[in-house]
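REVIEWER CHECKLIST
Item 1: Sequence provided? yes
Item 2: Single chain? yes
Item 3: Sequence as submitted:
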Amino acid sequence: MKARIVPPAEERLLLYGMEEERQAAVSAAAASLGIRVQVVEPAQLGSPLGRLMGWEGFQEGTPVLPEEIPAVECLVIGPMERRRLDQLLRALGQAGVTVALKAMVTPTNQKWPMVRLIQELRREHQAMTGETV
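Item 4: Structure as written out by the authors:
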């Protein structure tokens, strides 16, 4: 049987590394759909995604060394129905916001520290596009 995450009552996005103007555009697009936005600070990069999403059962992470702090933007989308994801992506597109590194929380990555997800997304992005972010 495959592990699944049951979408919680509150949909949430995690934002990391965005400038204020872009962060405001993402927040406005999400708010128009009733989706909560949480900004992840560098001090939180060692915390598991599940904890950052506000879910119970996840411990506080270990601090990330300053040299490990990535200088990139990242958007992490909490579990939501496909229809809602489509609405969110459409709203972000209409707001003119594109983010190279984005992912959904999965049963596999919910235990990963945020910094690990960012590192993995950077590797995948480079492998797929040849571009370094």
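Item 5: Key structural point noted by reviewer: The first helix runs from residue 20 to 31.
Item 6: Recommendation: ____
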